[in-house]
Amino acid sequence: MNWSEITVHIPFFGESIFLTIDVFIAWILLIVLVIGAIVYAFRKRKFPVIRDYLYTTNHRKVGTLYMIFGFIFFLRAGLDALFIRLQLALPNNNFMDFQLEKYNETFTSHGTMMIFFAAMPMLIGLMNIAVPLQIGAKDLAFPFLNAVSLWLFVAGGVMFGSAYFLNSSPAIGWTGYAPYSTAVYTPGAATNFYVFGVQISGLGTIFAALNMIVTIVRHRAPGMKLIRMPLFPWASLVTSFLIVIAFTVLAIALYLLMFDRLFGTSFFGGEEGDPVYWQHLFWFFGHPEVYVLALPAFGLFSDIISSFSKKPIFGYPAMVISLALIGFLGFMVWAHHMFTVGLGPMVNTFFAVTTMTIAIPTGIKVFNWIFTMHGGSLKTTTPMLFAIGFIPSFVMGGVTGVMLAVSAADFQLHDTHFVVAHFHYVILASTILGIFAGLYYWYPKITGYQLNETLGKWHFWLFLIGYHMTFLPMHLTGMQGLPRRVYTYGSDEGMTALNFTSTIGASLMGVSIVILVWNIWQTNRQGILVGDDPWDGRTLEWSVASPSPEDTFTPMPFIECTDPFWDAKTKGQKLKTAPNPRPAPIDEHTVLPFLMALAVLVIGFGLIYQSYLTAGIGGVAIFALFIIRSFRDEHTSFHKEGARHE
Amino acid sequence: MKKLGIFPLLFLLAGCTNSTVLNPKSTTGKEQAFLIWFGLGIMLFVLVIVFFLLARVVINYREKKNGLEEYRPKFISPKKQRKLELIWTIGPIVLLIILAIPTVSTGLKQSPVAEAESTMDGVHIDVTAKQFEWTFIYETDKEKHNILLLPEGEPIILHLSSMDVIHSFWVPELAGKVDLVPGKPIVYRIENPEIGVYKGKCAEYCGVQHANMTFTVKVVAKEEFEEYIAK
């Protein structure tokens, strides 16, 4: 059967949409799922909860929504990955219609969604949940802005995700290299979905980072100097600075590309333009982005390893300095993605050497983690298992990184499955294992329940084995001559067995995710409350109730050391409290952030289909929302209410 | 944990021995393969140390089931800690300097350069790519699509440019890849190819038929090559 020939036609914005059969099936599944969810919400009377979360600006609830939507996009991008692996399982394979353009769309969606709509949001979600609790802040500095960030991310993700359902998925790779991404070579709506989807959610990410910086700098509990802060907030702080710089550059690049595509400029193509400018801008964002993904996981693992080894972190100052150094060096290595572009021998050599230097602070961190465990009492809970699994896996990705830094070796390895193996090794080991560890670790703070440990261990082992089975053989297929982003290979190229192993590994990871979903479902259904401090933790978040209430830290603790909660526990005392409560950010119950994101979504769709009237309506709507917002002031109403209570 | 760590390494080493990139058929390719092996060697050394330390720590310091009351964290003295931290700061620096020396020397020699800066002797061939076809033009103005003939043992100077989007020229057996960027012709040099027939690929994603944008490279004796381009 030829899948790609079965199509359905639907008119949309003056264009006719062709739905291939897989898209049609996806539509039916989506509709069934949405109806199922609505019926479920009705029967279980969940609408007040949904309304509460729609209106909330509380950091834990916003963080939870970040996690939920991030996880949904993670499942979608994970499905893409499975389709890629099924198509590559055998030589000259024809799995459904996942060849040629459909394959190109699939790897583009997989990369873009995993980076922008799955990994980053879930990390930001964990920051939202944990950072205020760890530093003794009652909320993020700007709760309203936090909700705006969240809904902008959701808007961007939904917009990008909808491209598939409208059968106009972008097919330019997650790197969107010009001139292929300009209107000359990819006209039409598809590539616009990439430009605007990433742009809108990127805006939210920048807001989130600014919010995090101000929170960490201004809202720490009294006595919590920066040098007494746990490492997760430290990592979040460094990450936020990286985001502010890197995402601004990405926003500029996307704006220029938007002008090239919609308004006939030629920054990246044509006579005057230069496609290499895009690569510089993109990788000046793209490389720090790798550290945006990795550093929060480093911080999180530091806290987890310290907790479950029952020891303070080894070499705390070195850990902080190396975090900052990695962040700093991250901006000096972007051209190592461009060794083959012909920037010249001097440039190549310079960036080869700077890239290698990153291995030094990273190595310091690895040894410090190992020596944190040395002399401790290791409790192999699920979060700790993820942390222990992270170290060797991440180091394996790190060493291939150093191999790739060797510029002449990179000529061979660049853009092959060796590189695919390398970046999946580092990103999965740090970010994805980190997110899982954080989810298991802080689940009590999010819901009050603890995820099932047996299922958690099944999840861990299946995922870890599947992960190595998938990506280890790719080092070899890459050196065997398999470029990335090709949908097929010959049976005479001697990589059939390796590719088949990868596909089995990928499906093992898929099974492990099913176990995770089952675990979450079961845990929430049983609803066994576990108390404030189920892990015997060391840091402040374990001193507040589970799930964390909207009004935390009354009375405000006074901090005199790192690991203050542990210190108090071992001395059999309560946390010292500060005499004066601090003025705290004020929560609000408002639907404005959601509406603002909705308006931006309308602008985005208008521009994607070049219906400027639609974009204009969205623009008027958001301007009106700005005016409404400027007349509402939660501070005034909060203090009025306070006066009434007295 | 220990077993788990070593198994994939053996797997990796076993696979390397028959790989295309690591059994190159030109001097350029051999230099690159040497760098990959050299890098891999140093990095395996690092891996073994990390895996060994991690396995030891995880095995030795697991929570004792009954003795929790007696547990006191064992701390390393500040003096020893300073020593350890110095070791794992300076050690990697030394290793990286060892790796950086061949990196710099080969990198300076092999990196592709802009066309204007090149004054190299050898067999010059213009390589032009467009979606989804390769064109090779020899010094005699002979033009051929998707088949590239090279003379054995000569330095090959490729002048690469693209007519539309970015492509990348890659013959795994002969040398690493080099991009073809529209409007920016660059020059790449392959030294001393050996006789044989090899598969060339486009290695930069360039559109629908990217996977099928392949070409065939035949390295032949010098006389045969001259006869071919004269025709």
UniProtKB/TrEMBL annotation, chain A:
The keyword Transmembrane helix applies. Its main location: membrane. It is found in: Cell membrane. It is a multi-pass membrane protein. GO terms for molecular function: cytochrome-c oxidase activity; heme binding; metal ion binding; oxidoreductase activity. GO terms for cellular component: plasma membrane. The chain crosses the membrane at residues 17-42, 63-90, 110-131, 143-166, 193-214, 234-257, 277-301, 313-335, 347-371, 383-409, 421-443, 455-476, 496-521, 591-609, 615-631. Pfam families: COX1 (PF00115). Its EC number is 7.1.1.9. GO terms for biological process: aerobic respiration; electron transport coupled proton transport; respiratory electron transport chain. Residues 43-560 form the Cytochrome oxidase subunit I profile domain. InterPro entries: Cyt_c_oxase-like_su1_dom, Cyt_c_oxase-like_su1_sf, Cyt_C_Oxase_1, Cyt_c_Oxase_su1_BS. Keywords: Cell membrane, Copper, Electron transport, Heme, Iron, Membrane, Metal-binding, Oxidoreductase, Respiratory chain, Translocase, Transmembrane, Transmembrane helix, Transport. It catalyses: 4 Fe(II)-[cytochrome c] + O2 + 8 H(+)(in) = 4 Fe(III)-[cytochrome c] + 2 H2O + 4 H(+)(out). Pathway: Energy metabolism; oxidative phosphorylation. Signal peptide: none annotated. It is an enzyme of class 7 (translocase). Belongs to the heme-copper respiratory oxidase family. This is Cytochrome c oxidase subunit 1. The gene is qoxB.
Automatic annotation (TrEMBL), chain B:
Subunits I and II form the functional core of the enzyme complex. Electrons originating in cytochrome c are transferred via heme a and Cu(A) to the binuclear center formed by heme a3 and Cu(B). This is Cytochrome c oxidase subunit 2. PANTHER family: CYTOCHROME BO(3) UBIQUINOL OXIDASE SUBUNIT 2, CYTOCHROME C OXIDASE, SUBUNIT II. One of its GO terms (biological process) is ATP synthesis coupled electron transport. Residues 120-231 form the Cytochrome oxidase subunit II copper A binding domain. The lineage of its organism: Bacteria, Bacillati, Bacillota, Bacilli, Bacillales. It is found in: Cell membrane; Membrane. The gene is qoxA. Residues 13-114 form the Cytochrome oxidase subunit II transmembrane region profile domain. It catalyses: 4 Fe(II)-[cytochrome c] + O2 + 8 H(+)(in) = 4 Fe(III)-[cytochrome c] + 2 H2O + 4 H(+)(out). GO terms for molecular function: copper ion binding; cytochrome-c oxidase activity; oxidoreductase activity. It comes from the Bacteria. Its cofactor is Cu cation.
